[in-house]
Design goal:
This protein has about 290 residues and is of the alpha+beta class. The protein is about 30% helix and about 20% strand. A five-stranded mixed β-sheet has the order 1-2-5-4-3. A two-stranded antiparallel sheet has the order 6-7.
Length: about 290
C-alpha cells in the first residue's frame, strides 16, 4: 500500500496481475480512494467458495459465459474463454459486456466467431498489456521447461529475467545513442534476436561465420583393407570356406576378428581356410 501513497484520492484506477491481487487488497485500496482491478488465483485467501474449481465449471459452459459473486465493494467474476479467466474489481459491473472476435475450430476448420466479453476484462487487457511488458517478454523464447526440479525452474527463470532486463536497458541505451554504429540494429529488434546475439557473443561465434567443418564419415573398411586376425572363441561353428565349397559341417573354434568378416575358419598347419577366405579369387567365385 505504501507504494501508491502519493496517488491516493487522485482519481487513478490501479491494475495489477494475480501475483498481488486478493479481495482484501481490493477492499483496502477502495477505502484508500483507489479503485482497482486485477486477475486472481482461486486459491487466494478469501476467494468465494462458490467460484472455485473454475476448470470444471468451464467444461460445462459455452465460450463467453460468465459467473460472478460480490463481496461488499469487490466483484469476483469468471469468464469462459479458451480457459477460465478470473478477475477482481471494485469498480466493475458484471452486466456490462461487449462482443469480441475469437477463432474456433469446427470440422477441422478455423472460423471466426463473436462472443461476449465482460467490459472489466476488456479494460484490464487494454490498460495492463501496455504495462506488463516483463511477463510478455518472458513468455517468448524462455528457458523454462516442464518437469524441472523447483531449483532449476528458479535458476532458469532468473536467467530469463536477467536477459529481458538487459534487452530493455539495451533498447533504452540504443535510443539514446542513435548515432553509434555499434548499437545499430534492425528497426524491429526483438528479444529473441537479442537472446541469439547474446549467445553468439558468449560462445564467440560471428554473426555470419563459415559453417563448422563437418567430420568426414568414417569409412567402413573393405574386406582387404583392415587388419584381419584369427581368434579363438568358446563355441564351435561351421568353417565358412569348407561349408561353401563342400557343404560339409566342419566345426572349428577359430574365427576372423575383423568386423566385416566375423566368420569361423580353419586356421592351422593342416588346413588354412583363413588364408583362402581372404583371397580375391575366392570372394569373386563365391
Amino acid at each position: 500500500m505504501h507504494l501508491i501513497t502519493p496517488l491516493l484520492n487522485q482519481g487513478y484506477h490501479l491494475y495489477f496481475d494475480n501475483f498481488y491481487s486478493s479481495i482484501k487488497l481490493i477492499k483496502d485500496l477502495f477505502q484508500a480512494g483507489v479503485p482497482s482491478t486485477g486477475t486472481a488465483a482461486e486459491n487466494r485467501k478469501g476467494f468465494p467458495q462458490s467460484m472455485k474449481k473454475g476448470k470444471e465449471w468451464a467444461k460445462r459452459e459455452e465460450r463467453g459465459n460468465i459467473r460472478w459473486e460480490r463481496d461488499g465493494v469487490c466483484l469476483a467474476l469468471q469468464w469462459k474463454d479458451n480457459k477460465p479467466v478470473t478477475i477482481l474489481s471494485s469498480i466493475a459491473n458484471a452486466n456490462n459486456y461487449l462482443m469480441v472476435e475469437r477463432k474456433e475450430k469446427t470440422n477441422n476448420q478455423w472460423n471466426n466467431i463473436r462472443v461476449k466479453q465482460p467490459q472489466v476484462i476488456h479494460s484490464y487487457n487494454q490498460y495492463m498489456n501496455g504495462v506488463d511488458r516483463s511477463d510478455q517478454l518472458l513468455a517468448k523464447n524462455n528457458a523454462l521447461r516442464k518437469c524441472m526440479r523447483w531449483w532449476k525452474t528458479l535458476f532458469f527463470h532468473m536467467i530469463d529475467i536477467a536477459i529481458v532486463n538487459s534487452y530493455i536497458l539495451f533498447e533504452i541505451h540504443r535510443a539514446e545513442h542513435q548515432d553509434n554504429d555499434l548499437l545499430k540494429r534492425p528497426k524491429k529488434y526483438s528479444v529473441a534476436e537479442f537472446r541469439e546475439e547474446l549467445v553468439r557473443q558468449l560462445v564467440g561465434l560471428e554473426e555470419f561465420g563459415d559453417p563448422p567443418l563437418s567430420k568426414p564419415p568414417t569409412k567402413q573398411p573393405e574386406l582387404f583393407e583392415s587388419s584381419h586376425l584369427p581368434e579363438f572363441g568358446k563355441a564351435k561353428r561351421n568353417c565358412k570356406v569348407c561349408y561353401t565349397v563342400t557343404k560339409k559341417e566342419l566345426k572349428v573354434f577359430s574365427f576372423c576378428s575383423a568386423p566385416q568378416c566375423q566368420v569361423h575358419l580353419h586356421c592351422n598347419t593342416d588346413k588354412n581356410c583363413f588364408a583362402t577366405w581372404h583371397t580375391k579369387d575366392f570372394q569373386r567365385q563365391n
